[in-house]
Amino acid sequence: MIEPKVYREMGLNDVEYAQVMKILGRHPNYTEVGMYAVMWSEHCGYKYSRPVLKLFPTTGPRVLQGPGENAGAVDVGDGMAVVMKIESHNHPSAVEPYEGAATGVGGIVRDIFTMGARPMAALNSLRFGELSDARTRYLFDRAVSGIAGYGNCIGVPSVAGEVYFDDSYEGNPLINAMCLGLVKSDKIARSSASGVGNPVMYVGAKTGRDGIHGATFASVELSDESEERRSPTQVGDPFTEKLLIEATLEALNTGHIVGIQDMGAAGLTCSTTEMAAKGDSGMEVDISLVPRREEGMTPYEVMLSESQERMLLVAAKGHENEVKGIFEKWGLNAVVIGRLTDDGIVRIYDNGELAAEVPAKSLAEDTPVYHMDARIPDYIAQVRRFDKDELPQIEDFEPILELLLRRHNIASKEYIYRQYDHMAQINTVVLPGSDAAVLRLKGTGRGLAVTVDCNSRYCYLDPYIGSAIAVAEAARNVVCSGAEPAAVTDCLNFGNPEKPEIFWQFRQAVEGISAACRAFGVPVISGNVSFYNESQGIAIYPTPAIGVLGVIENIERRCTSFFKNDDDAVVLLGFNGPGLDGSEYLKAAHGRVAGCPSLDLDKEKRLQACCLEAIRSGLLASAHDIAEGGLAVALAESCFNTEGSHGVSVEISSDGLRQDDALFGEAQSRILVSLDPSKLDSLIKLAAEHDVPLMVIGAVGGSNLIIDLDGSKIIDLKIEKIESAWRGSIEEALA
Amino acid sequence: MYRARIFITLKKSVFDTQGQVVRKSLQALNFDDVEDVRMGKYIELQLEAADKAAAEAAVRDMCERLLVNTVIEQYGYEVSEA
Amino acid sequence: MYRARIFITLKKSVFDTQGQVVRKSLQALNFDDVEDVRMGKYIELQLEAADKAAAEAAVRDMCERLLVNTVIEQYGYEVSEA
Amino acid sequence: MKFGVVIFPGSNCDCDCRRVVEQVMEQPVDLIWHEADSVDGYDCIILPGGFSYGNYLRAGAIASHSPVMGAVKKAAADGKLVMGICNGFQVLAEAGLLPGVLQRNKNLRFICKFLHLKVEHNKSAFTNACSPGQVLRIPIAHDEGKYYVDTKVLAEMEAKGQVLFRYCDAGGTVSAEANPNGSLGNIAGICNRKGNVMGMMPYPERSAEEILTSADGRLIFESMLRHLRQVWK
Ligand SMILES: Nc1ncnc2c1ncn2[C@@H]1O[C@H](COP(=O)(O)OP(=O)(O)O)[C@@H](O)[C@H]1O
Ligand SMILES: [Mg+2]
Fold this sequence. Notes:
The complex is a heterotetramer, with one copy of chain A, two copies of chain B and one copy of chain D. Chain A is of the alpha+beta class. Among the domains of chain A are: 1-39 and 190-367, PurM-like C-terminal domain (Phosphoribosyl-aminoimidazole Synthetase, Chain A, domain 2); 559-735, Phosphoribosyl-aminoimidazole Synthetase, Chain A, domain 2 (Alpha-Beta Complex), CATH 3.90.650.10. Chain A is globular and about 85 Å long. Mean pLDDT of chain A is 94; it is low at 224-230. The longest helix of chain B is centred in the last third of the chain and has 16 residues, at 52-67. Chain D has a single domain, classed as Class I glutamine amidotransferase (GATase) domain (Rossmann fold, 3-Layer(aba) Sandwich). Chain D contains five helices and eleven strands; from the N terminus they run βαββαβαββββαβββα. The model of chain D has no long low-confidence stretch (mean pLDDT 97). Chains A and D meet through helix 8 and helix 11 of A and helix 1 and strand 6 of D. Bound molecules: adenosine-5'-diphosphate and magnesium ion. The site of adenosine-5'-diphosphate has 18 residues of chain A, from strand 4, strand 5 and helix 18.
């Protein structure tokens, strides 16, 4: 019999333990308790989040695979599918940033090629404390190196991402890794295991004691104790991963693989039970056959190890040697460790001796579900008490613009993406630096645009609206690149869901994402939940990172955010309005995080439709989403073109807003575009058809950024000067 | 003046993939009898200190604070008069 | 069974960028008296050999053929019975 | 003209090279497994970029001992063209087919970006389609690209025209600011004394199509074709 202390420490509560006993009709043994504990943790079992996640729209004409598999898949035309997913690796990265971030990349890439898709691009969404803090600088630098070290080695280009710095992440940085891959639509591989007698094969790296109970570790708050509880850190081996990619894709190509699943969180426990459950099968495996690199491992340790770069697959009977041969050609282990049965039971033997015997579905599907209490947090009322008229008026706008351009949340992210190979596979036709990365689909004339976005300060101020804005902004970035948004993947990073205030944030966020996705007709096809992002009891800002994939029908009609030709007209497309709430300006110039951002989904939809049609019709030379730092920052960013910078001169009026709001406000649903003046009439006509306001505000040219506000020239700065401040800011902070 | 030699390796519990690959490569070169290759870092430096004990203390301190990632690495050192 | 410890450093004539960076970082941590930091590789391995001399010969051979790039690197080693 | 692109475990850019040879240059090309013991029948062997054997120990070191490298050495001795790109260059240097070594970049970080290369002369099998001093826009993506060789060898290489490409600015000036990784003499690409083995850190196949914002890399493939056609005539 297992002591309550033991199962509680593993993460099961008394009610859950009783439930396990009921399922088994007996006391579970130590190994079985470990297996239930890890599979019923939030990280694997989604016991708190599952009822809420049901709110997402997950279907659509393009969807080939929604949530529930290793990754989602959408049809991108010509019989091709894109497989996509995002995942967190926050807790491991807080302890060992290089390996944590690296293995995060490894894990998400495995999810993609497990579906039979060749990984074609990686993205990342990062959150840290402020770079003025030494520990943060270390975490940031090492995490970026880890992503680079792993991604570069496996030849998957890291094409886009985002990073924000805010005190709320100081004790709990976020590392979210996203990946997409390409596969023929009729060749998508799945994780369900069927066919009695089919051999179960273990392939890839050997098993050690790393990361045991990693999944439960991800389901508790970080404290000094977590250092102790932690079993050896997982270290990544990108070289083995690269071999695993090639061998797996080659093996899948034989058509002799029935089902396949990577071993991520909860290792063998998760892969055996999930594969069996999905295929309505049972499975018998003998873990003494599992290749090991440490001696004396117990069944518990083997079943819970989270060693990296491993997969479980079920081959068609009689073809195991062919499959084995492929893995061995690539220098990898491939061992038959068991076979499928039909009784729905997973039996784990250790050298012939029964070590665990559990119904597959009881671990993989019938996990406990909790309907948690939700309560609006007290801080919401406080931050809403925001009267912008009380803010001191600013006289001198130039230093404010320079300050904003240097803000690490706004400054160029070159320091990061220089370290990522973003060109491998020669598909990246819009490199990092524009609103979204654009990849060509070789041999089709079409392309993809991808981005990941989330302004978590907005989400803190209002999780519902903030999350809807994250979807809107990501979609807008993709639209500005000339693509039609096709699918969303999301990584929901929150604090401890057992606290009603956190659960409220979580539910509001999911509702906001759902509303936006429905409005834009874009389904959620995959995602990941990361709770317990707290340190010393303080939660991070709610951070639902939203990845959006868009499809470009004609790759020649792609668009970037940079001004290209002198004398092009500069146009503000979209809906001006108040936007100081939650803005970077409010924080940077006034030290305040307050107000409530707003978004009108209908207007946003019209704006995106209009912009997309304008790009598709070849009207625009550039399109740039107006986000952090408002119009003034967007103008500057459009000037900073690595292929030759431009100046710009505009005249605007504050039109009922405060002057600082007109310059730096972050009202949603606005896009800054430039175009040949001869095409202006067509754009005006198009905007009218879509019922989208449009303002011609100036022209590209000169070598300065000049803004005339309400009849006086309030900003006149040399591009060269502000560009080098913007480009160098993050690197300076690290020096 | 003291001379310190510092040897850093991965902890035994951490898998040394690099060492594995190097071992396989040595075997392919017909060094069949090679086993258990561990790859690590080697640092040599000179430092001023009051005496050998002080030099050793300083070296330990450097290792803990900067040179070694104690989450996954372990280290040894030798200090001698230079 | 013999145990070999191999120390690989850049030749004196080759600039050690990493060593320089580490020295600066150490000084920033107030280890002011540190000089001449050289970064290198440390390899530990076990090997079977008839006797110590044979083990040493094998280690030299491994270094020359694979472990060391003699264009820029130099090495030392210690072999002991394991 | 038959091309062969070698795959080492950990090669990443084999398919990119194959695409450019096959689709852009319209030449036949095969992928060659690292265990192959012959590369007979190919006019040109390409060692692609990537992280062969994880670049463990030293970049290119372990791959340089692969069985196929014996065959590549023979092909080189027979006067066949051999081109190493990025990791391929590192392999050739480790294999002793090219002088010098590639060390970690001076900033100790991976660097991925477009930059400019100055073509030193056009009297080589790899540059004959360029004009002397021509500036090519080609990207780099590497961690260990700082070229180093001792001064005596360098002087000899310079004298024999073995330096083919140097990092420069858009105007063609070879300066310290235009040197991304600390390479000696801004060296980005070299050939052996005989002129049939070439290694370069920048990636010509990543800039061989207009859609990738530069097609300058084509000139290097074009040069090899011209050279081979001459030989065959
Ligand atoms: N962590 C990162 N990894 C890779 N690219 C990044 C990262 N952070 C930012 N970028 C790139 O820098 C550019 C600017 O990012 P961001 O300021 O988030 O743009 P936007 O506001 O248009 O979404 C984008 O091209 C983005 O992909
Ligand atoms: Mg953004």
